[in-house]
Design brief:
5 copies of one chain form a homopentamer. The first copy, chain A, is mostly beta strands. Chain A has strands spanning about 1-10, 25-30, 35-45, 55-60, 75-80, 85. At the B-C interface, strand 1 and strand 3 of B face strand 4, strand 5 and strand 6 of C.
Chain lengths: ~90, ~90, ~90, ~90, ~90
């Protein structure tokens, strides 16, 4: 899973029916200090998160293994709100 | 999903039968300011978009989950025309 | 799909049976001006292309969706010879 | 598989049910000298490893092929604790 | 498929049962001149190759399509020993 932060939303009226009723969030990758990195992905929210929250994103075929995304043409989904991360001194 | 902009088309006469009748568009990745980035992909259009439009692209096995691409040797498909994106100040 | 140019071939006698009788081509990624980039992949040819030709490559599980590659341990396949690309002024 | 080192943990209360009871570890990629690299992934632990240990991570659909991750929305899993690596002089 | 060279081995006692009896090799990517590049992967050997040999690696779900890796939590497998590559002047 990829660690990221929700920074925005995408609005689309004309889309494949897989996306009907789905909330599309923009998630930027972050490093282990929480700093925003350049790469980002547009992911379907299955957890109910908001902008500024830290999340886990699942990509690829596993993104179709939640109840809301089963068999859909979706390759990126938010599966968890992250409460905290612990990183040991390196 | 990847955010991108349609910048062109690909013409091919000799191709796998999965691609019969499919429209192949060149989609360049964009950043959150809409600036074109270098990476691009050739994607099948299932929405009906045109050059210059902002789109969402699904890659990998999920690209086979639309009606038009089911069980086909296609790994990249346009699933939505993007009307707008909202990004919060970072 | 990835846009590339065939630049060579790979010869292998000892290989998984999935590759029996398969032609293995080296395909370098190209940019939208046709310039060769560094990344390359070894792909199975299902179209009948030759060195110097521009092609589309499908990667991942969708590479197993052609008749010649069904259920095989192949993750990269040439699915089209590209006749032309049109890119609009950016 | 990707070679990495466990450097931390992720805590999440609100998550897809696929993750119920799963231990989420942060694994940083390492080079062949054991040096930590920047890329990292959050992976489900199926082996029972701890911080500081060297591990192998499986990504993508194969991450769903362990008993603990079958059919779950998980795309990254730790499948082995690495005891040693031998690299020949290059 | 990715072109690479076997540079070492990985030893692991505690691992998912998918890996029982499997030989784990470290394969570094090479360029078309045979020069070793930085990226590497740990792959299961299904061909019987040794250190220093040039190989083809299959990644992702197609890595589960050999007899030895069917339905296993393996995402990288060596499918061929490369005898030679021919690259045309560019």
């Amino acid at each position: 899973m990829v660690l990221g932060k929700v920074v925005g939303t995408v609005v689309s009226a004309q889309k494949d029916k897989s996306f009907a009723g789905k909330k599309l969030l923009i998630v930027k990758a972050i490093d282990l200090d929480g700093k925003l990195l350049d790469p980002f992905v547009v992911a379907v929210d299955t957890v109910g998160v908001g902008t500024g929250e830290t999340v886990l994103v699942v990509n690829g075929s596993s993104a179709r293994m939640t109840e809301e995304t089963k068999d859909k043409s979706i390759d990126s989904v938010i599966v968890a709100r992250v409460d905290s991360i612990q990183v040991e001194a390196q």
